[in-house]
Amino acid sequence: MKVEYRDICVTLGGKQILNQVNVVAESGKITGVIGPNGCGKSTLLKTTLGIYPRDSGDILLNDSSLAGFSSKQLARLYGYVGQENSAAFDFSVYDIVAMAVQVQGRKVKRVEKDIVMKALEQLDIAHICDRNIQNLSGGEKKMVFIARAFAQGVDTIILDEPTNHLDIKHQLFILDTLRRSKKTILIVLHDLRLAAHYCDKLYLVNNGCNVCNGTPEEVLKKDIVERVFGVNGYACEARDGSLDFTLQMN
């Protein structure tokens, strides 16, 4: 499913956070949104859920306005994993992931268990299925909420800094898992090296505006990186033929 943010404008506390931002996540691809801290990346994703209201602009799912869908319909179309995830009650890991199955209307317990355990196994956390969510580390919680998005059975997942709180091994595991899924992935990433390696297309945002978009090689050029991030780096081909990001220290 294609997801398109068209001319998104957001004002918070009297300050314009986003000014006509456009992003398109193509079906079956990993699309990354990058930019300096405070540029509006997370705000953009939160407009999808209505956490932050839009002054203007529209969000389209397969060319149909998001406004035309009910909350229940949207839960059956895409999964969302925020930057910080918390649970107000003492649910088990299994219970948290099972909520996604219940949203989809599957009430047969045997079917629910199969779906939940498959999602937990995909994220390699089946061994903690009975643990209390409140007692997990930040990284473990992140894995649980990504597993919940997988359990929804949707073709599209929107993620805000999914590698936050994770060590490098689990960062790579998560991104490899997302890539293998062949789902439509829209992802905010802070790490330019991960963005260069895993994303099919990048959108660079700064000061609430689009700067440029394209392949990682097109976006992460030396002059653009220096101008926007203030560092000396660029995307380049690694020895194995994959794309990497080189940061040159002064």
Topology:
Layout: E1 3-12, E2 15-25, E3 30-34, H1 41-49, E4 56-61, E5 64-65, H2 71-75, E6 78-81, H3 93-103, H4 109-122, H5 138-151, E7 156-160, H6 168-181, E8 184-188, H7 192-198, E9 201-206, E10 209-214, H8 216-219, H9 222-229, E11 233-237, E12 243-247
Helix pairs in contact: 3-4, 3-5, 4-5
Specify the CATH class of the largest domain: Alpha Beta
Annotation field: number of helices: 9
Strand order of the largest sheet: 6-7-8-3-9-10
Any idea what the CATH superfamily of the largest domain is called? P-loop containing nucleotide triphosphate hydrolases
Cα shape: globular
CATH topology of the largest domain: Rossmann fold
Total number of domains: 2
Q: How do the SSEs run, as a string of H and E?
A: EEEHEEHEHHHEHEHEEHHEE
* Low-pLDDT ranges: none
Rounded to the nearest angstrom, the distance between the terminal CA atoms is 43 Å
Largest sheet: 6 strands, mixed
Give the rounded overall mean pLDDT.
91
